[in-house]
Amino acid sequence: xxxxxxxxxxxxxLIAGAGIPAVAVAAVPMxxxxxxxxxxxxxxxxxLTDTDFQKLQISPRHSNMELMPGESDExxxxxxxxxxxxxxxxxxxVDQPYSEYVFDEDWITITPASAELGPDDExxxxxxxxxxxxxxxxxxxxxxxxxEDVMPTPYPSPYPxxxxxxDLFISVWSPPVIQIQPSYIYDRVESGxxxxxTVNLKNIGEDAIEINPKLGGERFYxxxxxxxxxxxxxxxxxxxxxxxxxxxxxxxxxHLSVPEGSKGRYxxxxxxxxxxPSVDEWNGMIHLSFEVWTQPTEPFVKTFAVxxxxxxxxxxxxxxxxxxxxxxESGGSxxxxxxxxxxxxxxxxxxVTLTRTxxxxxxxxxxxxxxxxxxxxxxxSGMYDESRTSYVERYTADGTVGELELGILxxxxxxxxxxxxxGDAG
Amino acid sequence: MRRSAxxxxxAGGNMAKIPALAVIVISSALILGxxxxxxxxxxxxxxxxxxxxxxxxxQKAIEAELSHQIAPYPGAVYGNVTVxxxxxxxxxxxxxxxxxxxxxxxxxxxxxxxxxxxRTGYLLEAIPEATRQDAIGIAMQNPEIAGALPGGxxxxxxxxRRILPETAEEFYVxxxxxxxxxxDASVSALxxxxxxxxxxTWGVGG
Lengths: 426, 206
Prior knowledge:
heterodimer, A: Immunoglobulin-like, Immunoglobulin-like, 3 domains, four-stranded mixed β-sheet, 27 strands, B: Double Stranded RNA Binding Domain, five-stranded mixed β-sheet, 34% helix, 29% strand, elongated
């Protein structure tokens, strides 16, 4: 019985002992022996061996055309045989992968249709492109392959890459029939107030063009990504006619009702959704950018100590930057003149009499152009461009020793700077 | 009697008198022509040129060249012409030409290089008041402009600027036009004063 007990204990210990190392091994990360590097031989797949192709020099190898529907153009391509055997040229049109639109082979003519080219011989092919009136506006890519030689691939490719080919890119375009002004609206707005903006459209075409303006497209503007908007889209209402008549104009009106208490910026887009193929999505978008400004109700307070009873001079400067609402009416945000309510008192509560001794306006005038001018004034308006103005107020107070509190409540100021001078202000 | 007889010799074909008449006509034309040229010359030279700061070495040559490159609006004359020169990156000239009968001056920018004045910009507002008002009236009668301007006094006072033929050519024909612009509303009309019409608009949808 005792022997059996001892045997059982030993058995248990053996089992347990076997288990402990196993757990230990599992818990401690063991270095994994690195496998010897395999030398990979870059062997060609069986179907790529002994690849051979006919060597042609093609000049140019790439060409671009910009054509409007109904227009045509042609290019001359010189093909030279750089091989030592005669090569048969049988040019054909091949679609390019990833082309926006599929090019119709009927739109292109290649002359001559074929050629036999001896060593060092050359031949000029005339490639004529004629875009029909009803072609879709967009980018077309194609190849003109002169031989059947293709880049070998280890697997079948839906778009074989022709080696002896001309890459031809054709942009089919048409001038916009509808003109938009302005292309963006940028304004500084006040919470709780309302603003109206207009976007003017002019249709110079012969057919009415449908529009369906709606908010959207803000994905194009990085500001909106990851930033909280000052207000939601429903703060803006749009009023627009459904069409811009042929040869006529239309006005899209944006009404912005800035929610009370909103702060920050709003960045977005007004997608005019113009049914005109000549206007792409980007060009039919009006960038909206609003900076919400809130009038402070409590003054900014600066406490400072005066150790010698010398006159105190306080100078406050604010700067205004031109807010651009070029086009249509300004949103009603007529810039108000900045001003300041300034107080000075002792920390004990006694007021110190302040006297305004100076107010000054200043400006910064650039010799540069502005986007917001009629095109026929481009030679003139750019000569002076006042981009920034500033307003300065200066106050003085009799010298008084002690701790003082300066209070500045700005009105219609984007910000301000202050200087407190004790003693001679110069 | 004598007056009525005077044309007769010509009508009657007295060829001997034709050369004499031709001489008189040509002489008159020359005198009148000379008068016109003199008048233009006087206009060009009637103003005083004042240099703000130190004039460049080519002062005289520049002044002579300037007289060919600046001219007031028809019906106006320049009084004082102030020239400011800076010699940064060559000689740059800023010209302010004021007319006693106009509210605003004409401004020109020039570059002077290789003894040649090259105009680099202009802003010409020296326009007689009557012409200014006419231009504004013509612009406001245009339906597109009228429709684009806010009602009441909200449109503000427009700027009225002379557009030189070389600029006007890009939008209309090569002739002097007037641009009437309401900056607050970003609306502008290009006005042909000869025909009294708006020939191009901007900011009313295009």
